[in-house]
Amino acid sequence: MNLGETYVLDGIDRQLLNELQGDCKRSLKEIGAAVGLSAPSVMERVRKLENAGIIRGYHALLDARKVGLDISAFIGVSISDPQLLSAFEEWVDSVAQVLECHHVTGGHTLLLKVKTQNTEDLERLISRIRSMQGVASTETMVVLSTHTERAEIALPPSDARRRKRPRRTPDPPETQKAS
């Protein structure tokens, strides 16, 4: 059942997603054994999850350093005119070194995660970014080491639903005693 942007996952869907995130190259039979379904039932559920847009693709996780991308950095980009934001984002889509682009709060408009071969390539990328129309400033943070970098999404518990907190009623004004 699809409720707007939220797809209601049952326990088996959650197990399937966790199994697939762990190793999506396993056979449907193996995954089915882990979640208590037959291979055809696994395939049917996976197709439903794909059609709902929950599963967006299957990818190999690469070790960036082993393929020559030694520099990771985050670049905060401040855009001077909101009218120019979409053009900058379109440009970002065409730049292979930009792995992620997030619209953020705080001192910058966007936060980019980039990987380059060396500091010279990073400097060229920063220069290209700074030359884009509408870019007011950039701030670059080069990653020295990475302790944790996850591709898997930790699914919230199945009973986690968006619940509105009850409104807090203001305390009644204290009644003044007549003296």
Question: Would you give an account of this structure?
Answer:
With 179 residues, the chain is an alpha+beta fold. The protein has 2 domains: 2-51, Winged helix-like DNA-binding domain superfamily/Winged helix DNA-binding domain (Arc Repressor Mutant, subunit A); 65-142, Alpha-Beta Plaits (2-Layer Sandwich), CATH 3.30.70.920. The protein has 5 helices and 6 strands; from the N terminus they run ββαααβαββαβ. The protein has helices at residues 11-22, 28-35, 39-51, 85-93, 119-131, and strands spanning 2-3, 6-7, 71-79, 98-103, 110-116, 135-142. The strands form 2 sheets. Strands 4-5-3-6 form a 4-stranded antiparallel sheet, with helices on one face. A two-stranded antiparallel ribbon has the order 1-2. α1 (11-22) crosses α2 and α2 packs across α3 (39-51). It is elongated. The model is unreliable at 162-166 (pLDDT under 50).
Structure in a nutshell:
This protein is of the alpha+beta class and 179 residues long. It is built from five helices and six strands.
List the helices and strands and how they pair.
Layout: E1 2-3, E2 6-7, H1 11-22, H2 28-35, H3 39-51, E3 71-79, H4 85-93, E4 98-103, E5 110-116, H5 119-131, E6 135-142
Antiparallel strand pairs: 1-2, 3-5, 3-6, 4-5
